[in-house]
């Protein structure tokens, strides 16, 4: 097996292992408490596993240490979130609705990308339709929403630290991805048309 294929296999195995750990924790919380906010986070992370398996090969991949580090943190850190048995800062119904908005955005973004979805910053073809007409990274925006919703539903210092680190890495990852793709004339034209990274009117 070539080194490239071994790395590909290893990345998929790591994603599957992290998802398994998260699943055990959040399914256990749901069975104990009946709260669904964690399940919505779990659903969004499940899409990463599925689309990682079926993604198409990239024509250009950023293999720098910074890109690998930011990608690993943004993917791996959310699996370290942990539920709390005490109540959230607001009712679970409210955080579930908030999380559902994020999940809808994630699903819409990933359905639009299809097999162009990937983990490492790479050029798997430029997609400029659907939610990508509003922001350049709708999937990442959805992740931030679901992470914040989970934090409000399960407030603890550990979760605050995880969300802060994971989402900071996510933003850096998005900017690295743009830096890689801007060499593509089609993507450069897309960026001139869609100026917002994650949040319209803010960033």
Give an overview in words.
It is built from 7 helices and 2 strands, in the order ααβααβααα. With 203 residues, it is mainly α. The protein has one domain: Four Helix Bundle (Hemerythrin (Met), subunit A). Strands 1-2 form a two-stranded antiparallel ribbon. The longest helix has 31 residues. It is globular. The chain starts with a helix and ends in a 10-residue tail after the last helix.
Compact description:
The chain is mainly alpha-helical and 203 residues long. The protein is built from seven helices and two strands, in the order ααβααβααα.
Write the layout of secondary structure elements.
Elements: H1 3-33, H2 37-54, E1 60-61, H3 65-76, H4 92-113, E2 122-123, H5 138-153, H6 157-181, H7 185-193
Antiparallel strand pairs: 1-2
Helix pairs in contact: 1-2, 2-4, 2-5, 3-6, 4-5, 5-6
For the record, give the distance between the C-alpha atoms at the N and C termini, rounded to a whole number. Answer: 43 Å
Radius of gyration: 17 Å
Total number of beta strands: 2
Number of helices: 7
Strand order of the largest sheet: 1-2
Look at the helices and sheets and give the structural class.
mainly alpha
């Amino acid at each position: 097996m070539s080194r490239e294929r071994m790395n590909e296999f290893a990345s998929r195995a790591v994603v599957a292992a992290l998802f398994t750990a998260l699943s055990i924790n959040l399914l256990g919380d749901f069975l104990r408490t009946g709260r669904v906010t964690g399940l919505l986070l779990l659903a969004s992370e499940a899409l990463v596993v599925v689309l990682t398996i079926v993604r198409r090969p990239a024509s250009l991949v950023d293999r720098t240490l910074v890109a690998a580090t930011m990608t690993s943190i943004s993917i791996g850190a959310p699996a370290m979130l942990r539920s709390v048995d005490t109540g959230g800062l607001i009712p679970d119904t409210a955080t579930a609705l908030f999380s559902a908005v994020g999940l809808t955005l994630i699903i819409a973004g990933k359905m639009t990308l299809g097999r162009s979805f990937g983990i490492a910053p790479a050029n798997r073809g430029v997609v400029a339709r659907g939610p990508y007409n509003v922001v350049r990274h709708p999937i990442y925006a959805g992740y931030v929403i679901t992470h914040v919703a989970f934090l409000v539903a399960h407030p603890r210092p550990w979760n605050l630290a995880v969300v802060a680190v994971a989402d900071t890495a996510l933003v850096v990852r998005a900017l690295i991805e743009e830096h890689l793709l801007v060499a593509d004339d089609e993507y450069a034209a897309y960026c001139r048309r869609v100026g917002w990274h994650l949040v319209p009117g803010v960033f």
